[in-house]
Amino acid sequence: MDLENRKRELVKEFSPLLLKTSKWSKIWMIALITIILIGLYAFILQFFKGHIVTGMRDNVVWGVYIINFIFFVCLSYSGAFIGGVLHFFKTPWKNSVARIVEIITVLSLIIGPIFILLCIGRLDRLHYLFIYPRIQSPITWDIIAIITDLIGCFIYLYLTFIPDFAILRDNSENMPKWRQKIYKYLAINYQDTKSQRERLHKITRTMSTMIIALAIVAYSVLAWIFSLTLQPGWNSSIFAPYFIIAGLYSGAAVIIIAMYLIRKYFKLDHYIRKIHFIGAGVVLLIMSLLYGYFTFSEYFSRWFSHKTHDINLLETLFTRYFWKFILANYIGILIPIAILFFKKLRSIKTITIAAVIAVLGLWLNRYLIVVPTLETPYLPIQDTREEFIHYSATWVEWSLSFAGIAAFILFFMLIMKLVPIIPMSGIIDQEREQKRKSKKRKK
Amino acid sequence: MKTKLFKFSVIAILIGLFVNTNSVAQDNKAKDFKMLYKFTTTKQADNSRLLEVSFIARHKKNRKNKIPIFDAEINFYNITEGENILLGTAKTNKKGLATLTLSENQSYFTDKDGYINLKAVFEKTAAIKLYEKSISVKDLMLDLNLEEIDSVKTVILKAYTLDSLNTKIPITDAEVIFSIGGMISNMPIEQATIEDGRYEFEFPTNIPGNIDGNLDVFVSVEDHEEFGNVIQKKTINWGNFNKKITKKENTLWSDAAPIWMYIVLTVLLVGVWANYAYTIFNLFKMKKEGKILEENIENQI
User: Fold this and answer.
1) Hey, which of A239, A404, B110, B160 would disulfide with A227, CB 3.0 to 4.6 Å?
2) CB contact under 8 A, A196 and B282
3) Could you tell me if A251 and A264 are in contact, meaning their C-beta atoms sit under 8 angstroms apart?
4) Is the ipTM of this complex over 0.90?
5) Domain total for chain A?
6) What's the pLDDT tens digit per position in A218-243?
7) Which of B272, B290, B293 sits opposite A188 (nearest CB)?
């Protein structure tokens, strides 16, 4: 009976988050929808006029879209990885961040691949990828990996939602009928019995292991799309682990930003505390050190080997892309390290600032991986028009990029309207565990 | 006239600059150059006749410094006893070559010995003097036959000229070269001297030909003082090209991927999707369990 009361209390506590929409939230949502609509207009323009409305040309065939694709997909994989690790190792503070991580994972895996579709000049031939796949092609591996990972992440996310759906189903008397129906349907008759709980824990644990393995495989495949070509700047044996580290770096940073925003705007200081930021900050510090090491190793070996095309690329990076290079690979790595390394500097705000710098630096790093390489091809450029040699994104590409980010935030807000961002079942599990431990001590 | 002089000099110097950068420091005056003016004729495989003039200026001191004369007008004549009959006009290209192709039906005046007398004339300009060259050739007929005699692939060549009554007069003491057409140049297969207007030999059996087994057999007379250049060609399916039957291996670049790739991918995918299926199966079991529990509670009530 105590348990039922506690569940009721928790539903009562989180109900405002689910049912009430503040004035600012509404303004936010309208702003996000506006950005998405502008993006939609840009997409229609691109669909009917073709890639001429973008900055992509014969040489630079991949632009901001592919960078967004890598960024979002890496974010998703890192989310899956971190989520899996949190669950698998039963991390004590996982309850406050687990759902944020899981939602980030699924949403970024939905948004990311949309950008790859925008890259394709002949979308009408998209189905050829499925009709005539070449198993030897990393593109085919990537399609398989993304689809498999997306389904896996959906299942995993759903598994973690089931106990909360059940709690909401049992305590939703005051909620609208449609919500009650949704919760009833999604709770799949979960009654929190011992056998059901054990079964759910077992399959969630297996899925969390699978998700970690899948994230590593899918990450590597994404990196191989680049590194299995002979292009200068891409053909590297450490690209796969480098991508994994970079993804974890961006993943940890985005989680920190999300934690900060949710804590601030949904008044969840009680659940998302400084200790969570410190923990995530330490993870970000480790990742930034590893990421810095890999970045240095990557560029150092290219510089030292002194191959003509690599040197041409490095020259481009240190001339035309000088400031971007400095921002991506110096400021984007060293500033977060400096902030996170010293205990005294670690506060919720500074950790969040470090995370923001890390995310921007990493996005720029992806830009520097893709664009300068395509601007320095092996074959001489035939047409020497400026836009054929150098790439600069147009408003169409930017508006679609921002539409992607807006869609990500909007969907995040909508999911938060469906289930509490702090898993209620997790809180109950924790309390149950504490009770069990105290009983043991008494005995 | 002045315009022509200017045109030739400037163009020649300009081309010279591109052809040989060493010539920049040299004095490129016309008097420092010796003109190499060559005239040749070739009776081609389709019985048309090619008249070609090569017009190149060579520096007197630096013999490597050669400048092709560009845009020079060359008049080609058929010389008869009474007059020169203009056959056509051609201008030299950037390589200093002027060519004129006369069709198979072109009729020529011959002298009493049966020679066709041809002349190529470059008219004098203020910078370059008149150049002309004449050549006399007999109209040589090369009858190339490719036959299988007693299952032996045989090449038979009959070479003759025609007199005024169209009587065939077999030629003697002429060197001929038999070759097979190739992508870059012809491959000689036989070199012989014709003594009585006929030559035959067994065709080699180890020549592949193109993808269909076809090959072009050429016979040519080169720089002959009496006949000039004469070429004849026949195409025949005598090649022994066989598509190399190779077992298609599973490689990265073949249609089918390496076997290990299929195995690894299948194991991975089956492993992952089986786990998904197992998870979904457990979810259904959980649902069923919950339903039974619900029904029990309802019955108790």
Assistant:
1) A239
2) no
3) no
4) no
5) 2
6) 888 889 989 988 888 898 899 999 99
7) B290
* A148 shares its domain with A242: no
Q: Which of A134, A159, A189 sits opposite B294 (nearest CB)?
A: A189
In this structure, what token pair is assigned to residue B126?
A: 């203020």
Residue of chain A with shortest Cα separation from B293: A191
pLDDT in tens, B86-117: 999 999 999 999 999 999 888 888 888 888 99
Highest mean pLDDT among A173-182, A286-295, B156-165: A286-295
| Collapsed DSSP state (helix, strand, coil) of residue B49 | strand
Per-residue pLDDT at B18: 47
B251: phi then psi, degrees, rounded to nearest 5: -130, 175
Residue A282's domain comprises 231-377
Quick check: B286 and A135 CB within 8 A?
Answer: no
Q: What is the pLDDT of residues B28-65, one digit of tens each?
A: 677 788 889 999 999 998 889 999 999 999 988 888 88
Q: Which chain B residues have a beta carbon less than 8 Å from that of A193?
A: 289-290, 293
Is A441 domain-assigned?
A: no
In A265-304, the residues whose Cβ lies within 8 Å of chain B are none
**Shortest distance, CA A403 to any CA of chain B (angstroms):** 32
The C-alpha atoms of residue B301 and residue B290 are separated, in whole angstroms, by 17
Q: Would you tell me how many other CB atoms lie within 10 Å of the CB of residue A339? A: 23
Residues A181, A101 within the same domain: yes
**Which tens digits make up the pLDDT trace of B117-168?**
999 999 988 878 899 999 999 889 999 999 998 889 999 999 998 887 788 8
Chain A residue with CA closest to B284: the answer is: A188
3-class DSSP assignment, residue A441? helix
Q: Is residue A388 part of a domain?
A: no
Q: Which residues of B touch A203 (CB under 8 A)?
A: 278-279, 282-283
Q: Is-contact A149 A80, C-beta < 8 A?
A: yes
Report the interhelical angle of A395-418 vs A23-49 (nearest 10°).
140
Confidence of residue B22 (pLDDT cuts 50, 70, 90): very low
Does residue A138 lie in a domain region?
yes
Residue at A384 is within a domain: no
- Does residue A142 share a domain with residue A4? yes
User: Does residue B20 register a pLDDT over 50?
Assistant: no
Q: How far is B274 from chain A (nearest CA, A)?
A: 11
Same domain, A288 and A241: yes
The pairing of beta strand B215-224 with beta strand B174-180: antiparallel
List of chain B residues whose C-beta atoms are within 8 Å of the C-beta of residue A199: 282, 285-286
HEC secondary structure over A244-259: HHHHHHHHHHHHHHHH
